[in-house]
């Protein structure tokens, strides 16, 4: 006969209601761990899925050592033709020019029941901070535009609906998190674009989803200036050639035309994704590019770390610390519950000792109940976390390895937390059953 199971059966409501509370706490701990893993995956998604070995960006930026921090962390701007020179470097299999930028469009929200519940909760608790009819207002859908040359790396890695980009202009492939539908048309820059395909899990380190276009379309969206602004700039562009026109008319006109064309040119890129020949040293090729082209080069792992340890660094540290604190709190809660259960059973423990039951039997009963609570609480909490993962607004990923680690951690914490209850049981005097001291 197992005393722990008999005691749990006798106090089943009290035990399982306490275990449910522990499960909800473990669910929160697992969710925080899943959020941490999601942030890490978001920071690495574009870099890893592109398949580039090296990322080339503008050489001089805001960084003290003189280098733009990666293709998606800081603004980088390069002439488009630079990628031809990089592709000619020995060891380079492919150099793909990319144009990238954050953009947005206004869309009408389609609130789910969960969003409505959160809205009502915000309205009740922060009435002064929430505008009335907020759910009916257009929202800004932010996304990252990535323009690539068809046939080169940098495009959508997988199409889950529709097709890839086949036309030279005005077609886009969007991540499903944008909420865009196949066939939907939208205005980006000065042109209308049609969604012809959908991809999945392609987001930036800020969790903004990605849309893909051809390189030329992305350049038009990102670099093309407002026509009204161009009209106001034309006099200033032509001004330096006024005096030259008085003396060298035939020379001034072509120069003025060239200057105007350069002022309105969109033939720029933000980064170059480089695929190397198998077996070639990435460090050596990076040194050649830096030396001969005077550009900043990062390996794929360095580019991921720049995104991960940039604006996400403090978020990850805080979440990890909060998770550890919650694990400790869960252990303390289980310890207090076990201690309370032990206090309720002092009379029974004294009776067992009076009847000659070994002390080890009593101590095993207490420890087994605590371990069972930790085991069931961890498994139920993990199952609940896996169940609610799809409803989080940002990617949350908890793995079976995380569950196994949580089980081990909780078993250790539970054993330590049950020491107080065991110590209390050790001091129970069997004579208290008979009314003795």
UniProtKB/TrEMBL annotation:
User: Does this entry carry the keyword Transmembrane?
Assistant: yes
UniProt subcellular location: Cell membrane
Principal subcellular localisation of the protein: membrane
Q: Which InterPro entries match?
A: ABC-4/HrtB_transporter, ABC3_permease_C, MacB_PCD
Classification via Pfam families: FtsX, MacB_PCD
> Which residue range or ranges hold the ABC3 transporter permease C-terminal domain?
325-430
Keyword set, alphabetical order: Cell membrane, Membrane, Transmembrane, Transmembrane helix, Transport
For this UniProt entry, what's an example GO CC term? plasma membrane
Domain MacB-like periplasmic core per the UniProt entry, residue ranges: 18-290
Stated membrane topology is: Multi-pass membrane protein
Residue ranges spanning the membrane: these are 20-40, 315-341, 361-383, 403-422
Q: Give the PANTHER family listed for this entry.
A: ABC TRANSPORTER, MEMBRANE PROTEIN, HEMIN TRANSPORT SYSTEM PERMEASE PROTEIN HRTB-RELATED
> What is the recorded name of this protein?
ABC transporter permease
Organism name? Pseudomonas kielensis
């Amino acid at each position: 006969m197992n005393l722990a199971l008999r005691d749990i059966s006798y106090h089943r409501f009290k035990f399982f209601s306490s275990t449910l509370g522990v499960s909800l706490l473990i669910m929160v701990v697992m969710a925080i761990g899943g959020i941490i893993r999601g942030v890490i995956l978001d920071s690495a998604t574009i870099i890893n899925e592109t398949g580039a070995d090296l990322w080339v960006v503008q050489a001089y930026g805001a960084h003290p050592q003189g280098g733009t921090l990666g293709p998606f962390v800081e603004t980088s701007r390069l002439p488009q033709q630079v990628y031809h020179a990089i592709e000619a470097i020995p060891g380079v299999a492919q150099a793909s020019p990319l144009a990238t930028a954050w953009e947005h469009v206004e869309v009408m929200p389609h609130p789910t029941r969960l969003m409505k519940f959160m809205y009502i909760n915000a309205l009740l608790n922060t009435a002064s901070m929430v505008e009335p009819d907020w759910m009916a207002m257009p929202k800004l859908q932010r996304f990252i535009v990535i323009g690539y040359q068809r046939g080169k790396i940098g495009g959508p890695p997988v199409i889950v609906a529709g097709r890839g980009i086949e036309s030279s202009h005005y077609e886009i492939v969007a991540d499903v998190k944008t909420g865009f539908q196949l066939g939907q048309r939208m205005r980006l820059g000065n042109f209308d674009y049609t969604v012809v395909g959908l991809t999945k899990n392609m987001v930036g380190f800020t969790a903004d989803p990605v849309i893909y276009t051809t390189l030329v379309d992305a350049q038009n969206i990102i670099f093309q200036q407002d026509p009204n602004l161009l009209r106001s700039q034309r006099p200033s562009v032509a001004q330096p050639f006024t005096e030259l026109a008085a003396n060298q008319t035939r020379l001034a006109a072509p120069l003025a035309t060239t200057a105007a064309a350069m002022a309105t040119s969109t033939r720029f890129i933000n980064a170059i994704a480089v695929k190397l020949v198998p077996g070639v040293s990435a460090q050596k090729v990076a040194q050649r590019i830096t030396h001969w082209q005077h550009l900043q080069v990062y390996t794929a792992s360095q580019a991921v770390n720049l995104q991960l340890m940039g604006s996400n660094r403090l978020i990850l540290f805080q979440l990890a610390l909060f998770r550890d604190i919650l694990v400790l709190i869960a252990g303390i809660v289980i310890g207090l519950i076990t201690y309370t259960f032990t206090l309720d059973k002092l009379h029974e423990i004294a009776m067992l000792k009076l009847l000659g039951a070994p002390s080890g039997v009593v101590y095993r009963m207490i420890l087994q109940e605590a371990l069972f609570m930790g085991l069931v609480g961890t498994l139920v909490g993990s199952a609940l976390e896996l169940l609610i993962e799809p409803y989080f607004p940002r990617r949350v990923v908890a793995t079976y390895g995380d569950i196994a680690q949580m089980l081990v951690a909780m078993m250790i914490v539970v054993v330590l937390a049950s020491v107080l209850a065991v110590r209390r049981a050790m001091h129970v005097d069997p004579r208290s059953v008979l009314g003795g001291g």
